[in-house]
Amino acid sequence: MPPVSRTRAQGRFPRSLSFSEMEYADSKPKSHHVLSKIFMAALLTAVCIFILKHPSSYHSMSPFSRHEPGVTHVLVTGGAGYIGSHATLRLLKDSYRVTIVDNLSRGNIGAIKVLQEQFPEPGRLQFILADLGDARAVNRIFAENAFDAVMHFAAVAYVGESTLEPLRYYHNITANTLTVLEAMAANNVKTLIYSSTCATYGEPEKMPITEDTPQFPINPYGRAKKMAEDIILDFSKHSNMAVVILRYFNVIGSDTEGALGESPRPELREHGRISGACFDAALGVSPGLKVRGTDYETADGTCVRDYIDVNDLVDAHVKALNKAEPTKVGIYNVGTGKGRSVKEFVEACKEATGVNITVEYLSRRPGDYAEVYSDPSKINRELNWTAQHTDLLESLRVAWRWQRSHREGYSAPLAMAF
Ligand SMILES: NC(=O)c1ccc[n+]([C@@H]2O[C@H](COP(=O)([O-])OP(=O)(O)OC[C@H]3O[C@@H](n4cnc5c(N)ncnc54)[C@H](O)[C@@H]3O)[C@@H](O)[C@H]2O)c1
After folding, report:
1. Domain range list for the chain
2. What does the pLDDT look like over 349-377, one tens digit per residue?
3. What distance in Å separates the CA atoms of residue 310 and residue 342, rounded to the nearest whole number?
4. Lowest CB count within 10 Å: 7, 34, 176, 401, which one?
């Protein structure tokens, strides 16, 4: 039976926009008698009324609402976003069952559509439109679905923006993580993989950064993530939940097969990350590239970062999920171990795009740190993970292919078709 994409109201929020179809036994009478048609219509109406009045009964029929031996059901929060959508793709390819919860404040319905088209089979992927700031909605989602694990990606995630709107960051990152954790505990969900960041380290004196490097974040984004980590760590002391905290360095690249890419909202461009800014300049969407800060204490005066390819990053998540152990907390840096300057990045971007991007050098951006790169030896050793996509130029070429063929990002018509 072909997959069906339907919309069904479940109160106001959460709203499951698409779910696997139910199977109906073929019990149609052979006769086309008018009375039997009327009877069937009445029966169907009664069934519809029953479903609307008893949504939980309906839910219990959904494969997402029951644990199934041999199937791991992962809740991916923020799955419409850049990293969450790539993680979902990898999980689905690896035969996991996935529920995405996203409020679409920053993600793209087009990314969900791509994932649904690749995995239309019942019981593979469902999308629930909900805001993690709405604790009632979150509790309901956990009560109605049988999750085995959570990958908590959903967050606002721009350093510059966090300095301008700190309360938004503490609410969205710290408070929402508490809500998710409470719902997990109440519903006995056994595994959490948490998206943290190297911004929790601030600007350490010693490079490279290990997991033991003291955390002194210097902006609200980093502090909000550090507080969320602290909540998780305190909770873990008396819980048998399996927890892995992954501290990502700077994420770049996109799906090597070209299904997904990075497509932030146009209004976020001013806060945007360097790869997006380079591609915008190469596409002519922006007049050029602004490099903020040329007087840092680095080899060429521009900031140094550790760029990790998104394909490697999602691989680290899958390895973390497989190796997570009850009662234990694993904390890992996810980076290449190699720092690259912004100037180097810009040169690679010019080569990948073939465009001689105009570069304007400006003063420093508040909240930025000079040099950040990881020591990934702990994750290499304990999770048997090593970055494979370490050729910066190649990662940018892959990302550029998607950008060039998706000039409008995940375009509006896709969203309308939903
Ligand atoms: N991109 C990076 O370089 C980077 C580096 C370190 C850590 N991280 C972390 O990785 C995670 C994912 O980042 P990303 O780059 O994919 O960001 P993104 O903005 O592309 O995706 C975040 C997603 O979360 C959703 N979201 C935000 N608030 C929500 C809420 N209250 N309820 C439901 N959904 C909500 C957004 O709609 C979006 O789809 C974040 O936690 C971020 O802090 C990212």
Report:
1. 73-406
2. 999 999 999 999 999 977 677 889 999 99
3. 19
4. 34
